[in-house]
């Protein structure tokens, strides 16, 4: 468990600083007590992180559920009544996991997943610009285009230009400079700069700046522009921050409607995040989706029992974990302990952190998710990949996460149906000789992303030290999703000592270096 602690500890610090303002901001946007967001972050890190099979996924309160939570609290007559729905939603998620519905996660097209990541990256950048300028009426974690303060994403940016807080902007620029210097220059200068992450240095400098300028009339940063963690006066008041479900309303049909809504939306958001983080993972680990649903369900039951918000796996935290070098689930677990310890022991110190410094950290996270080169890459893959991608990006930016993904999925399905109208598709596996470890898999004439789950399952079941003959001579259309699965599998195959023989009309090749490059070759090219 501690094998990669030198990677996981620095990554957990970065995830902690990303998660802290989001936990508070999502609670505020949800109309829930601020402490409820921290509870969800702590349980998402420690409990869900421990039970999950994901190496790099990080869970916590979800921005995609904020509007649902805000409406449900009013509809159900109070936060304690709403907590009953959270607990029941967790139980329903356990049922989803036991019914093995996690397989749904394998059927999201990669173009939509990449669009989701890019869209989230863009919306992070757009939403953090006002905080970077020191303009903070909209809470952190509100990723919807139409905001709770009555503005929209772009009008908020325009307003922030007219309401710049000099001290916040200055320390934000300094923090951003530290982050860029650390990632582009200092991280290559020695292990000490890899162990001590740039975000930690930026936050420490931000606290020092606040302390030194708090008595200045021009550069002072007001409390509204700082992190705002609840500060209990004593242990009794700390315990008073917990809320408990009012189970007397369990027979109310509206409770069950909200519970099922939470379970469904949280499960879909988690499965989308699992698919996305597995694609971002440089080590190409595959997360067991049914186990993830069981972990999320357990986390939501516990969160609801002590007053926390609904939990999902969250792409912002997970991508920050990957970008910071996290290798195992310990980074998620440790970040949860950091949240727990800090809110108990040092809430006053946390409340000295300028939001603009945390905005600088999130700006870097957003840029790494939405690099401009990806648009060109997706365009070059053809309209069948680019159209669902760009629709997803646009939908997320101009509506919200769930609506944007829904639009992208709808377009992706239409594209597949157009192609499927012309050609049928299926997958079958030919003879399997267990004695010599040779297994032959023949792909059909048309293989689309609908076949992802079946192919991934077959490849994952291959024993170590086996020999796979992959015959694609009959294949006329091979979806980009399938090529990416084969590319990822070739990396894992080397670790499991699985040899691959690829048979195609272009010839035969042993252990191809890159499936992506192979399938880009023109038909006239011959390989021997």
Automatic annotation (TrEMBL):
Keywords, comma-separated and alphabetical: Membrane, Transmembrane, Transmembrane helix
Major subcellular site: membrane
InterPro entries: SLC26A/SulP_dom (IPR011547), SLC26A/SulP_fam (IPR001902)
Bilayer topology: Multi-pass membrane protein
Compartment(s): Membrane
A GO-annotated cellular component: membrane
One GO term of the biological process aspect: transmembrane transport
Domain SLC26A/SulP transporter residue range list: 6-391
Keyword match Membrane: yes
Domain of life according to the entry: Bacteria
Regions crossing the membrane: 9-28, 34-51, 58-76, 82-108, 115-133, 164-185, 192-212, 255-274, 352-369, 404-421
Protein name: SLC26A/SulP transporter domain-containing protein
Biological source species: Mesoflavibacter zeaxanthinifaciens subsp. sabulilitoris
């Amino acid at each position: 468990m501690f094998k990669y602690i030198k990677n996981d500890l620095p990554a957990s610090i970065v995830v902690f600083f990303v998660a802290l303002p989001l936990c508070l901001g999502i609670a505020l946007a949800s109309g829930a007590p601020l402490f409820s967001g921290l509870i969800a972050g702590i349980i998402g890190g420690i409990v869900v992180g421990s039970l999950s099979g994901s190496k790099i996924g990080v869970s916590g309160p979800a921005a995609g559920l904020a509007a649902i939570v805000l409406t449900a609290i009013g509809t159900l007559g109070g936060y304690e009544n709403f907590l009953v729905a959270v607990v029941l939603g967790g139980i329903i998620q356990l049922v989803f996991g036991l019914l093995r519905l996690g397989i749904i996660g394998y059927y999201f097209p990669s173009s939509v997943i990449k669009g989701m990541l890019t869209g989230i990256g863009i919306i992070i950048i757009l939403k953090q610009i006002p905080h970077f300028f020191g303009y903070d009426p909209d809470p952190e974690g509100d990723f919807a285009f139409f905001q709770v303060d009555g503005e929209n994403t772009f009008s908020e940016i325009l307003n922030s230009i007219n309401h710049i807080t000099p001290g916040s902007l200055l320390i934000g620029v300094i923090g951003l400079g530290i982050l860029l210097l650390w990632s582009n220059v200092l991280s290559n200068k020695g292990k000490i700069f890899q162990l001590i992450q740039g975000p930690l240095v930026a936050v420490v400098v931000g606290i020092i700046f606040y302390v030194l300028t708090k008595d200045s009339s021009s550069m002072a940063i007001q409390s509204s522009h700082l992190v705002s963690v609840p500060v209990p006066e004593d242990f009794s008041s700390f315990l008073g921050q917990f809320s408990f479900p009012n189970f007397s309303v369990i027979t109310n049909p509206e409770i069950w409607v909200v519970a099922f809504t939470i379970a469904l939306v949280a499960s879909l958001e988690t499965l989308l995040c699992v698919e996305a983080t597995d694609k971002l993972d440089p080590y190409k680990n595959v997360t067991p989706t049914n186990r993830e649903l069981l972990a999320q369900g357990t986390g939501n039951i516990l969160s609801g029992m002590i007053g926390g918000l609904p939990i999902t796996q969250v792409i912002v935290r997970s991508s920050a974990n990957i970008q910071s070098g996290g290798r195992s689930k310990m980074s998620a677990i440790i970040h949860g302990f950091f949240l727990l310890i800090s809110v108990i022991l040092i809430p006053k110190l946390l409340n000295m952190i300028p939001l603009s410094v945390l905005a600088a950290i999130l700006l870097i996270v957003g840029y790494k998710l939405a690099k401009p080169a990806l648009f060109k890459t997706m365009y070059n893959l053809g309209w069948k990949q680019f159209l669902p991608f760009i629709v997803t990006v646009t939908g997320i930016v101009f509506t919200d996460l769930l609506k944007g993904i829904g639009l992208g999925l709808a377009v992706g399905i239409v594209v597949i149906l157009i192609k499927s109208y012309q050609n049928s598709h299926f997958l079958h596996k030919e003879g399997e000789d267990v004695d010599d470890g040779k297994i032959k898999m023949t792909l059909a004439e048309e293989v689309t992303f609908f076949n992802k789950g079946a192919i991934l399952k077959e490849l994952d079941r291959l024993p170590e030290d086996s020999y796979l003959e992959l015959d694609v001579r009959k294949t006329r259309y091979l979806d980009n999703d399938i090529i990416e699965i084969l590319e990822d599998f070739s990396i894992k195959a080397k670790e499991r000592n699985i040899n691959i023989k690829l048979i195609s009309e272009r010839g035969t090749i042993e252990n191809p270096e890159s499936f992506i490059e192979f399938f880009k070759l023109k038909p006239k090219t011959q390989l021997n």
